[in-house]
Structure formats: C-alpha cells, structure tokens
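User: Predict structure, ligand adenine.
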Amino acid sequence: MNFYVMTLFPGMINNAMSESITGRAIKAGHISVKAVNIRDFADNKHNHIDDYPYGGGAGMVMQAEPVYMCYRHICTQIQDSPPEDAKPLRVIYLTPQGRTFNQNMAEEYAHEDNLVFLCGHYEGIDERVIEEIVTDQVSIGDYVLTGGELAALVIMDAVSRFIPGVLNNCISAHKESFSDSLLEYPQYTRPENWRGKSVPPVLLSGHHRKLEEWYRRQSVIRTALMRPDLLEKADLTQEERELADRVVKYGREI
Ligand code: ADE
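Assistant: Predicted complex:
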C-alpha cells in the first residue's frame, strides 16, 4: 500500500507515521508514505496558496491550481503509463461533511494499491478542484479539526492494520472489536492478583472450549453495555440475544 498525502504540513504526517507499528511497516516495506507539500506548487513568489472567498465571508480558501498541480505530480509518480485496466485512483478529501469513517471502510481501502489524501486548511478548498479530483469525502467524526492531517493519519493507521505483514499476528485485525459488530472481550496479564483484584478463573483453566465460550459471552456483554447500537448488526444466537437484552435492560449481567 502506498499512501500519498497532499498537505501543507508534511512534518505532521511523516513524524506520526514513522513511529510505532506504522514506522516498522514502512521500514519493512509493507506500506509507504509520501507527504507532498501543496505549497511547493504555488505559482507566486510568496508561496501563497490561499485567497479570499468570492462573495466575502471570514477566512481564506485554498486555491484550486496548487492542489491540482500537487495531484498531477502524485499521479505521475504513481502511473507514468497506467495499464488499460488500472483502477481509478482513490482520492480521499478529509472533511467533516464527508461520510463517517468506520472499520468496514478501513478494510475496503486496504484493497487499493495506492490511496491519495487531500488535507484542507483555512476555511476550505475551492470546490472546483474537489469536483475534479476527489472520489471520496470522508469525516472521522462529528467535530471540527483545524485541518485534515489528523484525520488522514487516523485513516492510514486503521487501513495499515489490514495490510498483510503490518501486524505480527495476521488474524488479529479481524478478531477484535467491530470485526463482527461485537466489541473485544476484556484482557488480563500478570500478576494473577493485582491489588486484591483476581483474574477470572476460567482464563487460568487452560480449557480451550470454555475459554472460547467465555470470550464470546464477554464480547456480547461488553457490546450490550457500551455500544448497544452495534447489537442490531451482530450475528447472535437466540441465547446470546436474550443475554444482550437482559444486559441492556438491567445495565449488568443477570
Ligand atoms: N477536517 C476537519 N474536521 C474534520 C473531521 N472531523 N473529519 C475529517 N476531516 C476533517
């Protein structure tokens, strides 16, 4: 997976992505990240890439041409001579007006060879270049950030986890919260007794079937307690559904 990020703050992207698991994935060649500075495509000696909005109003708007030239630069890097059957390039504009990002979208994006992100700043970007190059408008939640960089980082991080080799345990991206509309069960590690709180005995039993049953039951209980909205889509047995209903009704396991 090659990530390209059109941004005014390439340092934000490079610094964050070079840490931790994504940093290791870059070094191992599983993913690549190229932050391209939109300001490098300014057409004036002051390197301005924004201007006043037509019609008036507060703030500045990013101009279409530097964004477009930045995009064209990335296109030439990706596909000097695209094959006939090349998939159209996915260009994701980060905006609170977009579709809210979720785990299914992360998995879907992970199937692409290349993903391009467009990070806006100021009051927005000239609509004409958005119409021209953007394929997806995505939000990471109902709040307004100062720019799209943090949102692009969130999406790249979540997508990277689905790229083979990025997580050392290849099933772990699937077997956890949201994978089947259930949250993950609680985890424990040593010591067995911490400040008077013991680890649930079943976890020490080494009984594989009982463990699997406990994990599943805890996932159902947790989802019912913390995210009952997810239960609608979850594939539950009749017994699990009754358990979930009781937990929702009484606020605890009954
Ligand atoms: N840019 C500003 N706020 C945003 C948000 N919530 N999601 C994505 N991009 C944004």
